[in-house]
Write a structure and sequence with these properties.
The protein contains 2 helices and 4 strands, in the order ααββββ. The chain has 150 residues and is α+β, with helices and mostly antiparallel strands.
Amino acid sequence: MKRNLPLAFLCSIAGILSGCATAPERAAPASATPAAATPSPVKLDNLQKGMTTAELVAQWGQPAEKKTLKSSNEAEVWTYREVTGSYQDQVATGTRMVPRVDPITGVQSDSPEPIYSQQTVEVVRTSDLLIFQGKVVEWKVRDEKRTKLN
């Protein structure tokens, strides 16, 4: 009987461990197609300091926005935007009261319950490029999430 105890212990541990599972990871956001009006600067590796505006337009297209800096007529900021991904999500948009009965006391009362709605989340990459005397001098890139309830 004592010889079977370690075997029984190992079998019970194996049974417990085989029942454990991790939750699946959330799927990566699906890639969305950028709108026709906005160029697609997906690859920053082809961007170089000293690039001319003609080379920039040939690779990235026309910018979504151009701003001339007040301090110098020779300096501009060109802005490119693209949607790099989007996904659907559930969010609580309100609550409603639902009746419930306390299982111990049997007393009926109202309890708040969340109301969920579906929203679309888009990840928008904005690239601001500083152009001085017709050449790329510097740039910065930022990602923003835009949400819209469906």
